[in-house]
Amino acid sequence: MRYRLLGRTGLRVSELFLGAMTYREVSPEARRIFDLYAESGGNVVDTASMYGESENVVGELLQGRRDRFVLATKYTGSRDRTDPNAAGNHRKNLVLSLEQSLRRLRTDYVDLFWVHVWDRHTPIEETMRALDDAVRAGKILYAGISDAPAWLASRANTLAEWRGWTPFAGLQVPYSLLRRDVERELLPMAQAYGMSVTAWGTLERGVLSGRYNEPGAPASRVSPDSLSERERTAARVVVKVAGELGVTASQVALAWVLGRGVHPIVGASTVDQLKDNLGASGMALPEEAVRRLESAVEFELGFPRDFVEEVDRSPAIYGDAVHLLDGR
After folding, report:
1. Measuring CA to CA, which residue among 171, 195, 87, 89 is closest to residue 134?
2. Any idea where the NADP-dependent oxidoreductase domain is (predicted)?
3. Per the omega criterion (within 30 degrees of 0), is the bond before 174 cis?
4. Which residues are catalytic?
């Protein structure tokens, strides 16, 4: 397992994050998964306050080795659906959600505390100041934002820079060969601010693992009959490339995300699944394979990205020496 720095911090985080969303009990299999992940060099466990029993399970599984892990959890989701103030990104819910998570996780601090989703009713200034207070209190070490528009994350980090608050070090988004829309605004924004990017849904509910390609494949997270032709086409190309490289389709799909500088969150439910996913670490896909994967299904950046890239080398706009500019 290789490591990268979290945003513009010195914190080392492993290439692959372990997602704990589906954990409901401290089973022997869950223990084996955590042990294998740790033995392989993985050090980031990602959960959330609204993932049912997940935080309790993670807290139990990390007993005796908590400080060796980068523990990440999220808040926004409702703690009590009958209470209108038990949800959202305002200060009250942040404070109470964090305290609840700390109790469940059996720890006195969280390494990476994510804003789970954009709350359009809470000013981002309130959220950023409350997060900074939690950092200063030692209850969280770093902050991140998940499932939010680029302009919001950009405004948040600009406010943090101007006011001396803790900025977002990470961005969490859905990203896969089938879902690349974050390339339009979110990934360039993250690069400009030096934010680490983590991705959920990289295997698209198992579609890109190739499990639904065979005739008569049983339904699992999705029904094979519900797949669109676009999904089937992408899966076929991933499986074909995997066969040529002598690896699995899941490893190819994850390696493509890793190659984009993004940390996949792997939500393995069995040790065998995790072993397979870990095989993507350090895998470099050939350029020709990447071209085939990316051209398998249609994707357009859209305006303004496609227009800006089209005119980026235009002498009419940037002068006759534009072709001599190397850029960043």
Report:
1. 89
2. 16-297
3. no
4. 51
